[in-house]
Amino acid sequence: METLRGSITSVGFAWGHRFVIGDWRQSPIGPFADVMWARPDGKRILLGEAVAAAFVNSVYPLDEVRNEPVTTERDGRSYAMRTGGLQLEMKIGLARLSLPPRPRWFTATVENWCARQLLDVHTYGSSPTGVVEWYRTSTARRVVAATASLDGTDLGALARLERPLNFGFTDPPRQPSHVRLRVDLQRPPRDRGQ
Q1: Which residue in 22, 76, 187, 194 has a CA-CA distance of 20 to 30 Å to 53?
Q2: In the chain, where are the structural domains located?
């Protein structure tokens, strides 16, 4: 079992760009950040330093992988992400949900059912590469304001995330959000020990 602890921030913008930022303080490869980017033309791009990008791509294969350092910065309710020519500045709201630790079986059954009914998301499933995943949220907050630019060009106003993004077994909530969580990964037997 591999475990990551950190946050996932998902935001969309009026010009059709959608981003899912993984900011992992603990992982099997150490701390890292990555960005999954769905462009308006449907192309899905993974941004991250080589080792981090390879780790994420082994779970979620995207159309293109770019070896770029991703930096994140959190100061109170302000959260920023930068990589290459892409910059996002976000304001995070107050916690709307706070959950205690719970076992994986609960996440795979009760929590998964509730998440589907309330948010149209899954907390348990298999990635396109066959990795079984449990997403255990500890706190959930809305992204209440955000700006984004690509090579100096503004990407428009903050918007709901149009679906599908096709990154993995579930899309993020439609409402831009910042979620702190623990993710457990169980790779298929053929992948273990590599």
Answers
A1: 76
A2: 2-191
